[in-house]
Amino acid sequence: MGLRTLAPEVDVIVIVDVLSFTTCVDVALGRGAEVFPYKMNDGTAAEFADRVDAVLAGPRDGDAPFSLSPVSLAEVAPGTRIVLPSPNGAALAFGAAEAGAGEVVAACVRNGAAVGSAFADEDVRVGVVAAGERWKGSTGPLRVAVEDLLGAGAVLSVFDRVELSPEARAAAAAWHEAESEIVDRLRESSSGRELLARGWLDDVVLAAQAHVSDLVPVLVGDRFVDRGV
Prior knowledge:
three-stranded parallel sheet; alpha/beta
């Protein structure tokens, strides 16, 4: 509901889903791949992947070469086309586009400052959406995800010459307070603990690499591309 209300009121919607959709987008685009977001459990993802001549990402613990594990994308070959289903980040990206947002951007801890800097000096209205997470994988109720609050704060922390909403100021303040300990904060978050329990510490560490990417992934049609290309 909040996304549908916000999208028509702004020029840019920034989606933040740190563990792991938007981190995957940043990592894959950084390797020169193309990412086609797709809604999770849709049942038509394989058909869509065939139609766009892309590889369908699978579950983290499955046999597919790529998944919502950012580490699985760290060595992807340039030019690879990947359909990446996601219950939160991908669904929000398409929801924002359908609701009338002018530009839909994917941000995470890795590229948060780059995304914020791309729009901080432009005469545009920017909305930042922290995706949140679901209990029990993709089927449970939605819950607050502190990693997405911090990722949103990384974006908003560079907006130092514009008036921020109280919520945006709180996110930026949370980022400033946590930035020097961001690896530990992500590890200790509910999502981080879930990933660690399943043996995916490397995903958390990769997602916590702050300011390592200058990419600004924008949804163009059915895929994310770097705004700078």
